[in-house]
Design a protein that fits this description.
With 605 residues, the chain is an alpha/beta fold. It folds into three domains: 6-205, no CATH class; 304-381 and 472-595, Rossmann fold; 394-467, no CATH class. Helices cover 50% and strands 12% of the residues. It has helices at 6-26, 35-49, 53-56, 58-84, 89-108, 127-145, 148-158, 160-165, 170-196, 206-219, 226-243, 251-266, 344-351, 374-380, 397-404, 413-417, 421-440, 456-468, 486-501, 513-519, 537-541, 544-551, 556-561; strands spanning 119-120, 198-199, 304-315, 318-329, 333-337, 359-364, 367-368, 382-384, 474-478, 505-509, 522-527, 530-535, 583-584, 594-595. The N and C termini lie far apart (64 Å). Residues 285-289 and 556-605 have low confidence and may be disordered.
């Protein structure tokens, strides 16, 4: 019975291995079509350079060819990956497809490859060997999925900018995924050569690349079983059609296309999305909570954390931020407020390394801002949230926070491959760290819920939990209370104060001025990119320059009477000279808001 279906089973295994080479980069958000080129280079190199089966035996010859082919595939991936890693989406697909076609044309014109006639290779591969190789590849990706490295790749796929801010070196991880794809494609090329007996450059053309990509997409790129499911689907459907007597050449691809379209429309996550994704919860073990987590030295109270001198940012002559001098010291809670378009988000983007300054200098936790990559600034101890939530939507809340712990957890992938107990201990430690952070923001009960399914307020809290997971020295919050009601904002204010009591330095932007006055030890006010006031909340609330920045003008009667202080009354109403759509409630003990018309230049983010 097995012999009757040996060919079908072998091609299922080979198709799955080739699909895994696409899965290796899809999991990191890359769309590459260069795997056919890697496979062709590996197939011809392995078959040509390996000793003949008559000299060393069939299995040793195949193993030597596999080593050669995987090495050639990985090397080709490095050569292609280094200059193309800055490309994304369709541009990367076009560049890699061009490489594959160039390889095919070169091989087609070489004598040692046999040209269009192809190169003869002895059939050595059996169905058992093919499935053994598939099992090893699947095992690699299975053990990778729950590791620190695997989580980093998933985070890059979901949101590259957020991944960088979590301390993930996106370029290095993408290149590593590319090399893995090259090695797996090389394995496929050699195994294919030693099964079909005659290989030609046309076996690895554009159609082959598309079939490999489609197989991976149909199977799904969010679970390691996806390529196997996709290959089974793509291989068995034609066999079923043949078994029921559908022999017309156009009917078979037509029906296969309809089935493929149905999968894409109704199962956008691929066939693997039918398998529920299980979220691991931390065990109740009482071992040391710090085990497996890297230590971080935090600055002592009063030490400088942020030092800005004449910092500015221009966009085509528009000054988003200009000549900002600011010092933030350890233990402070500094609120950054100002009208819309004042430059607040641009300023914190420069502090966190997302935007290079045009003028001036900045030092954050001893790291110079400018040419330093974002992930290195994060490694120095800076963690942040964003004005618009940047969560990893297809990951659970707990997995989001686990990504946040990337910098303080230890690499586990290689040790997971060997089932070393230390890897399990380190993963448990990371899980406990993530669980503590979720508990800190009140999301423990939603740990297994996908981030995209959370309410807006819970998503904002999840971002804070993820930021806390890296044990930062400086926490930057960009409008954390946006979308929250006054009760939720009050709880957030209490959380921020408790974090400050633990020694964490916090810099946050917020339009909820009442919350800022209630929470912060110091408030800095920006207007048109410049600092117009800095000091204690009480002084800021009565500063005429701040009143004028928010409300357009302030006469002496307003200032003497304390216009902002007027908001301390329970029945406070908008000032008479306020714009019609401005709402003022600046009571220091309440979660008041102040929204003004967008009179200044828009913030560059």
């Amino acid at each position: 019975m097995l012999d009757q279906y040996a060919t079908t089973l072998t091609f299922i295994a080979l198709g799955a291995i080739f699909a895994y080479s696409f899965y290796a980069v899809l999991i990191a958000g890359q769309l590459s079509l260069g795997q056919a080129g890697f496979a062709s280079l590996a197939a011809f190199s392995g078959a040509y350079l390996a000793p003949s089966a008559a000299d060393v035996g069939e299995i040793p010859a195949l193993l030597i060819a596999v080593v050669i082919g995987m090495s050639v595939g990985a090397l080709a991936a490095v050569v292609l990956g280094l200059p193309t890693m800055h490309l994304r989406g369709v541009f990367l697909a076009i560049a890699t497809l061009g490489f594959a076609e160039a390889v095919r044309v070169v091989l087609l014109n070489q004598e040692w490859t046999g040209g269009a006639q192809g190169l003869g290779v002895p059939r050595v591969l059996t169905v058992g060997m093919a499935w053994t190789a598939l099992a090893l590849v699947a095992y690699w990706f299975w053990r990778m999925g729950r590791s620190r490295y695997g989580r980093a790749l998933e985070a890059i796929r979901e949101d590259e900018l957020a991944a960088r801010s979590m301390g993930i070196d996106v370029g290095r991880h993408r290149l590593a995924a590319f090399v893995t794809a090259g090695a797996v494609a090389g394995l496929y090329g050699v195994l294919y050569a030693y099964y079909v007996r005659l290989i030609a450059p046309s076996d690895f053309d554009f159609l082959a690349a598309v079939e490999g990509l489609v197989t991976a997409v149909v199977g799904g790129s969010t679970m390691f079983l996806g390529p196997l499911l996709g290959s089974g689907f793509q291989t068995i459907v034609p066999e079923v059609q043949r078994a029921v007597g559908v022999e017309a050449g156009w009917i078979r691809p037509f029906l296969a296309g309809l089935l493929l379209l149905a999968v894409i429309l109704f199962l956008p996550g691929g066939l693997a999305s039918l398998i529920p994704r299980r979220t691991r919860m931390p065990s109740g073990a009482a071992d040391d909570d710090a085990a497996g987590l890297a230590g971080r030295r935090h600055p002592a109270a009063g030490e400088p954390v942020v030092t800005l001198a004449g910092l500015g940012k221009e966009y085509g002559g528009v000054h988003a931020v200009r000549d900002v001098d600011l010092d933030v010291r350890a233990g402070e809670v500094v609120g950054l407020i100002g009208p819309n378009g004042a430059g607040k988000t641009t300023l914190v983007n420069m502090i966190s390394g997302l935007v290079p300054p045009s003028t001036g200098s900045a030092t954050v936790l001893g790291t110079a801002i400018g040419s330093t990559p974002v992930h290195r600034i994060a490694a120095a101890g800076v963690s942040r949230t964003f004005q618009h939530s940047k969560l990893f939507n297809r990951l659970s809340a707990l997995e989001n926070v686990l990504v946040g712990a990337h910098l303080v957890s230890r690499p586990t992938f290689l040790r997971r491959l060997l089932w070393l107990p230390s890897a399990r201990r380190d993963e448990r430690a990371a899980l406990r760290q993530a669980s503590r952070c979720l508990e800190r923001v009140g999301l423990t009960s939603l740990a297994a819920t996908r981030a995209e399914a959370l309410s807006y307020g819970d998503q904002r809290r999840l971002e804070i939990a993820r930021a806390l997971a890296s044990d930062p020295s400086l926490l930057i919050l960009d409008e954390p209370a946006a979308g929250m009601n006054h009760v939720e904002a009050a709880r957030l204010s209490e959380l921020i104060r408790s974090l400050a009591q633990d020694g964490l330095t916090i810099l946050f932007i917020e339009h909820n001025v009442g919350m800022v006055l209630q929470t912060c030890s110091r408030v800095v006010v920006l207007n048109f990119g410049e600092v117009i006031a800095s000091g204690a909340p009480e002084a800021i609330a009565a500063d005429p320059a701040v009143i004028e920045a928010y409300l357009g003008s302030a006469d002496d009667d307003d200032v003497d009477g304390g216009l902002l202080a007027e908001g301390t009354r329970a029945d406070a109403t908008p000032a008479e000279d306020a714009p019609p759509d401005a709402v003022v409630n600046l009571r220091p003990g309440d979660a008041g808001t102040l929204d003004t018309p967008d009179t200044g230049p828009r913030e560059a983010t």
